[in-house]
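Exercise 7.
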Amino acid sequence: MAVEKVKQDLHAPVKLMIPRDPSNPQESDVTITVNGKNFLIKRGVQVEVPQYVAEVYYNSEAQKEIAYARQRRAERNVE
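Solution. The predicted structure, written as tokens, is:
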């Protein structure tokens, strides 16, 4: 029963808006792929996606921030 509840929650629709990228204005769409299923999301437009798609996007953004922080630390250590 609990597993079924988690599955339902992961498929529940949530709102997601991926901001436009001013440094790359030609890139107007973002593709998110989860288990072989593709979601094409237009930047700057609020859309409804399954919760698991939003989670993948937010996890990806968090990992980018971690990578940027590590890169900045490495650059400071080299100088």
